[in-house]
Write a structure and sequence with these properties.
Helix content: under 10%
Shape: globular
Strand order of the largest sheet: 1-28-27-26
Catalytic activity: diphthine methyl ester-[translation elongation factor 2] + H2O = diphthine-[translation elongation factor 2] + methanol + H(+)
Mean pLDDT: 93
Number of strands: 28
Pathway: Protein modification; peptidyl-diphthamide biosynthesis
GO biological process, one term: protein histidyl modification to diphthamide
CATH architecture of one domain: 7 Propeller
Strand content: over 45%
Family: Belongs to the DPH7 family.
Order of helices and strands: EEEEEEEEEEEEEEEEEEEEEEEEEEEE
Low-confidence stretches: none
Organism: Hibiscus syriacus
Structural class: mainly beta
Number of helices: 0
Length: 349
């Protein structure tokens, strides 16, 4: 069910709901626009919206112009600090913003982003970022195939280590939420790798180069099962991996989603429910379980490359029930941001 939509001022590539209590109405959307000419530039922006799906509200309350952005992520809930938003951009910068706003629902909702640190960590482009569970470190994938591990401190951000992990663009990196000393990486070289960052340079735990037929775009560790991790690829497959033999993970199941699998997001409270952005084939909700993964719903209301997707964290109601899940999605060239609710009762699938 469509709830609301709007158009951004640049090509839309990422959407992220704030997971922090009291700020779960806040949606961030980022853009990347190549401005061609004798000296091409890559411009971007972050827009913040107040979302109330029950009232059909998608209200812009803050916007900041930036370099062209490839990825944004809110800090994980496990941190003691308030909400932080990290940005990975085409100029090689990692920027950290604090969100300054009211969490009192009786007040007017709103706020703004305040940059608390920003460093050019590479001469290459920053393509992807992931927070560790305690929100003290960030892994960043770079366009030269390297990965950087950045620590977050009161004095700013500091590069702990960086190494050449892949031959081509490193599209995705992911901390293991159960074993945060492990970092997974995926690249345009079709390789899926794992690294132990307790050593410097990091030790490679495994590298799989045979399963993905095209570049690896996204990786997501299951929040509920420490032995399960998912990968998405340009080859259009969402794959489920068994990590019980960490040095030799097993691809135990897969499903073709009809388009390059650019982003995958686990549902915040329904185990095994996955939201996928499928580039040329819109968006899909996929059920991962004991049986073969299956698509339970497809969403095709975008007319361009499906890039950004996220679930809103549902509020728990008295009696343990939850409100209907709201989804935000965005597409690139048509600059479209949409809010919608799944037609399926995903809590009962």
């Amino acid at each position: 069910m469509d709830v609301a939509h709007c158009y951004l001022q640049g090509n839309a590539d990422a959407v992220e709901f704030c997971p922090h209590e009291g700020y779960q109405n806040v949606l961030a959307a980022s853009t990347y626009t190549l401005q061609e000419g004798e000296q091409p530039t890559r411009a971007g922006s972050i827009s913040l919206f107040d979302v109330n799906a029950e009232k059909g509200n998608l209200e812009l309350f803050h916007r900041v112009d930036t370099a062209g952005i490839f990825d944004i992520k809110w800090s994980t809930i496990g941190s003691n600090a308030g909400p932080l938003l990290a940005q990975a951009d085409a100029d090689g910068y990692l920027r950290i913003y604090s969100f300054e706003g009211s969490s009192n629902e009786e007040k007017t909702r709103g706020g703004f982003l305040n940059e608390v640190s920003g460093e050019r960590i590479s001469s290459s482009m920053c393509l992807f970022l992931d927070w560790n569970p305690s929100a003290t470190s960030i892994s960043v994938g770079l366009s030269d195939g390297s990965v950087s591990i950045i620590t977050i401190a009161e004095s700013g951000i500091e590069k702990l280590q960086e190494w050449k992990a892949h031959d081509f663009e490193l599209w995705t990196t992911c901390f293991d939420i159960h074993q945060p000393q492990l970092v997974y990486t995926g690249s345009d070289d079709c390789k899926f790798s794992c690294w132990d960052i307790r050593d410097s340079p990091s030790d490679r735990v495994f590298q799989n180069s045979k399963v993905h037929k095209m570049g690896v775009c996204c990786i997501a560790k299951s929040p509920n099962d420490p032995n399960t991790i998912l990968t998405g690829s340009y080859d259009e497959y969402l794959r489920v991996w068994d990590l019980r033999s960490i040095s030799r993970p097993v691809n135990e199941a897969s499903v073709c989603l009809g388009g390059g699998v650019w982003r995958i997001k686990h549902h915040p409270f329904v185990s095994g429910m996955i939201l996928a952005a499928c580039m040329h084939n819109g968006f899909a909700i996929v059920k991962i379980g004991d049986k073969k993964p299956e698509v339970v719903e497809a969403y095709s209301q975008h007319g361009s490359l499906a890039y950004g997707a996220d679930w809103q964290r549902a509020k728990i109601l008295p009696g343990g029930e939850t409100k209907s899940t709201t989804v935000a999605t965005c597409s690139f060239y048509d600059r479209l941001l949409r809010l919608w609710m799944p037609k399926s009762d995903i809590c009962c699938i």
